[in-house]
UniProtKB/TrEMBL annotation:
Skewed-composition ranges (Low complexity): 320-333
Biased composition (Basic and acidic residues): 28-54, 302-313
Cited PANTHER family: AMINOTRANSFERASE-LIKE PLANT MOBILE DOMAIN-CONTAINING PROTEIN (PTHR33223:SF10), CCHC-TYPE DOMAIN-CONTAINING PROTEIN (PTHR33223)
Superkingdom assignment: Eukaryota
Region of interest called Disordered, as start-end residue ranges on this chain: 1-67, 299-333
InterPro entries hit by this protein: Retrotrans_gag_dom
One Pfam family here: Retrotrans_gag
Retrotransposon gag domain ranges (all copies): 183-269
Name of protein: Retrotransposon gag domain-containing protein
Amino acid sequence: MAGRIGDPRPGSPRESLGSVSRTADQPCPDKGKGKLHEDDVRHQINAAHNERLRNQPGAAAADRDPRDEVIAQLERRLAQMEAKQSANIPTAGASNDPGLNALMNKVSALERELAEGRGDPIIQVRTRTPFTNRVLSAPIPEKYRGNAIKSYDGRSDPQEHFSRYQNNMLMVNASDEYLCRWFLSTLEGPAYEWFNGLPEGSIDSWQDLAQRFLTHFAGRKRAKKYFTHLLSVKQQHEESLRSFIDRWTRETEEVEGADERTLLALYQGALRSSPYARSLITDPSRSYAKALQRGGLYADADELHNHKREGGHPPRKTNPSSAPGPSPAGQGA
């Protein structure tokens, strides 16, 4: 039997609108979200509207349908929920924590001061040191503070600086700890920065520091020539004995691998024929150093003779106190 007139049939548009109205009027069970799901509401509105259009006999049926009011109510309710949701979104950067807000205000003020150049400069204070406590706590003589030594900047031969410093300090019997601490005063530039970069507490002895220093700057060490290079060094025909001895001494500083006996033999072979060269054959020198000393005396005699021949004043001897007792032709050199 047909249903009663006015009763909504299952699936009819009236029943659909009724369910939409009931859904919109019911509170959202999920109060944590605080609103109905907008997508679901829109879907129900569109479904009800489409159903109404399908039931119209044609475009001429323009009579106002009571169900249009229900749809309008749902649309107004949806607009209200969207407006309420937008009002509940917190402003960026705002916080309910007064302490956090105060901190953020201080940070903003500091940023403005730095941007305007009024902030206090940041100073980094280095408190660590490569020396161990043993090196730092050792007593240092009050009267002695080291002799003047040319500073090392890391651009020259480290072995020269190391040898000069160590020999200078050993003359005053400096302790191992003092060798470490005073060495810092002889560094500058890149060498000083290298020392500051050493690990904290890594230097406990002079041996530690010397090894690290020589290893790090090994690339700056001047390469030595082999002593056979001296075979090519000869006294020129017009070269004075004084000039040759000076040149020979500089050349020997650039070679390695030769003992005194070898140096003496090479030196004698480099001299041109002269009274001095013949004296080294007839009266051999006891050492290489003595041979050079005798050569200095012969050079003084040659210069004096030349000045007298030219009518000038005799030259001043470079180091008369180092001359030995016997004359150049004497026996004992």
